[in-house]
Amino acid sequence: MSIFQSDDVLSQAVLALRRGVGSIGVETFSRIEVSGPDARGFLHAQTTSDVKSLETGEGQASASLIPKAYIVATYGLCRMGDRYVLLGDACRRRELFEHLEKYHVCEDLRIVDRTEESAFLLVQGPRSGPLLQHLWPEQKLPLQEYGICPFAPGGDDALIVRHSETGESGFLLVGSSEGVERVCGQIRKVGPEFDYQVISPEVLDVLRLEAGIPRWGLDMDQTQILPETGLEQRAVSYQKGCYLGQEVVARVKTYGAVGKALIGLRFEGLHWPDVGSTLLVDGKEVGTVRSGTWSPTLESPIALAYLHRDYRSSGKTIGFESAGKSYVATITVLPFYQAPDREHQSCRLAERGMRAFAEGREVESIRILREAIVVDPKNKDAVEALGVILSRREEFEEAIVLMKDLAQVDPDSIMAQTNLSLYYMKLGHKEQAEEAQGKAMVLSLRAQSAKVRAEKLEREREAAERAQITSRLSMFRQVLELDANDHMANFGLGQGLMKLGKVEEGLPHLEKAVEIQKDHSVGYVALGKCFQELGKFDQAREVYARGIAVATKRGDLIPLRQMEHALAELDT
Question: How far is the C-alpha of 403 from the C-alpha of 397, rounded, in Å?
């Protein structure tokens, strides 16, 4: 039995990272590169992800499997021209290399293991992007997970990869030992401005567990098929053609959830089962604990465990026994913790920046707005606000650059051209000011015309949709005259009536649809929404709870998230 023992230093470090930024050199990554004219097609056929869809600078989570879908290795697959970088677990580098070589027959490509010549530095936390951008203003940081770019300050052939090991935004810097050490020194030098800390291995492990990230050798190994780990949600393309293990993965998706799967347990109290412990319910073995820790963010013990499908009902609290001890845990679909996405983070920073400006803290507002733009360069409000503030300080050159950026992000921005006209005039650039003013007028007329057209199209769309729904309702009613227990006819009729505003009339059909097919996750979403619209909130809660159990068991993540969100809104 593991017992929580107060470690204020570790807890404070975890919580501080979720506000600031930290770095740690790691030896847990491998770097294998596949290059050459045939690399793209070869990897597309040998991995679970859609390699052919990748443009230069993009990346994706991926995996290599054997034909029965047991895992060889999981990794991030990044494209740089006709060179592909596979960043995976160091302990699986030999197996992955040999696996790729085994299927490399006559393709024109090279497979090289570059792990030994590489050093790896994780820079993690919501302020990781602003810190790196502050150090290297000209460096264009990748925005999407496993996005990649070359990185001159890190030494020859160094890379920056967008990658989170903590649930926060973050980066993996890859380069020579000397280059990465030089970068570490630069980061430490400016770190205090960004709430910087050195991350310890213990802190990193807590952070990755809170983020629900399984670790090879602890939470998964070659005895698991990919769908048991949950990683197929990110690492598998169901639209691509054949690859090793594809048949098994597709069968699981089509016919339901696997017998056991990795899921989160959030325990009550201060103790949790030891790693490797068997979990029992009424004397029956139902699962195995693989990793666990005290979570400072959730203020409770958490664990990753493989659980039988009958017990994977998200939000359900279950009593377990293990090694003679009793535990109570809430089933949690991973991750336990997930930071707001970039857009939300940027919006929050922009709001803080504008509030600071309104309160007279102009220099602070400029710093915060710059961070907001680094986090999300497409945040139009942040770009515009910073440009306006700088213009008030008569820093018109930078204000003009920002308004040009705004015009690129939003080509229809009237404000961008209006401000450009004003700023050019302040600098005495009359010709450019008149050109920008003319563009603003054209955009204004275009916007008015587009609004009129959009309103007309919306009216026509609504009329066409109502006509289509009415036609379908007639078809569903004809089917029900022949078979009152037809599931899809009841579901379609109920949904159609709801869309026409006849919610009460649609309710019995949705209830019957769920009664007929009790594992139809989407049916619970529609029925719960129906109860909500009728103001029957208790019934809606009960339906969502049942639906969440069904969706969790089947692995239907989209309706699961919809119902979890709806239930959370009902409880606020």
Answer: 10
**Where is 496: in which H helix or E strand?**
helix 487-499
Chain length of the chain: 572
Q: Which domain holds residue 499?
A: 483-570
Q: What is the pTM for the complete model shown? A: 0.79
Q: How many CB atoms lie within 10 A of CB 205?
A: 15
- For residue 485, count CB atoms less than 10 angstroms from its CB and return exposed for 0-12, middle for 13-18, buried for 19 or more: exposed
Report which DSSP code applies to 400: H
Q: Answer for the pair 352, 368: CB distance below 8 angstroms, yes or no.
A: yes
Q: Is residue 245 classed as helix, strand or coil in its secondary structure? A: coil
- The 3-state DSSP class for residue 380 equals helix
Report phi then psi at 74, rounded to 5.
-115, 150
The answer as to whether 331 is a domain residue is no
Residues 55 and 158 in one domain: yes
**Other CB atoms closer than 10 Å to residue 283's CB: what's the count?**
6
For 512, how many CA atoms within 13 A lie in the half-sphere containing its CB?
19
Reported as a single tens digit per residue, the pLDDT across 339-382 is 988 899 999 999 999 999 999 999 999 999 999 999 999 999 99
